[in-house]
Amino acid sequence: MQRVFEALASSVRRQILALLSHAELSAGDIASRFKISKPSISQHLSILEAAGLVASERRGQFVFYRLVRENLVNTLDGYVQQVCPVRRPLRKESATRAAKATPLSEG
Question: How far apart, in whole angstroms, are the C-alpha atoms of residue 29 and residue 90?
């Protein structure tokens, strides 16, 4: 979770995620949308990939990136479960019941 939040701390990386929200793009296509160097974009993409937010695939001489939506959603959901005051006791109850192997009662 820490890597995801560190990756999301950069506005450039958040913009890259927005660019990838509906389609995959090559590294060159991504870089062309920013006024920073290609090596800087490459570093941002590496951080996003290390955090599991994007995946890359080499096709010939090009590298294409796509959003790994489920990782972002799962991380954010995990974070909300940790900090939300209503969900915390429910998670604790769920864990206790699972440890005792008793089913949740209906009602």
Answer: 45
If DSSP codes are grouped into helix, strand and coil, which group holds residue 107?
coil
What's the structural domain count of the chain?
2
Residues 44 and 88 in one domain: no
Centroid of chain to Cα 67: 8
Which strands sit side by side in the sheet containing 54-59, from one edge to the other? 25-26, 62-67, 54-59
What is the tens place of the pLDDT at every residue in 42-72?
999 999 999 999 999 999 999 999 999 888 7
> What does the block give as tokens for 57?
């695939």
- Please give the full DSSP string across 1-32, using - where no structure is assigned: -HHHHHHHT-HHHHHHHHHTSSS-EEHHHHHT
Q: Are 94 and 48 in contact (CB under 8 A)?
A: no
**Are 48 and 62 contained in the same domain?**
yes
Give the pLDDT confidence score for residue 107 in this predicted structure: 46
Q: Give the predicted TM-score (pTM) of the model.
A: 0.73
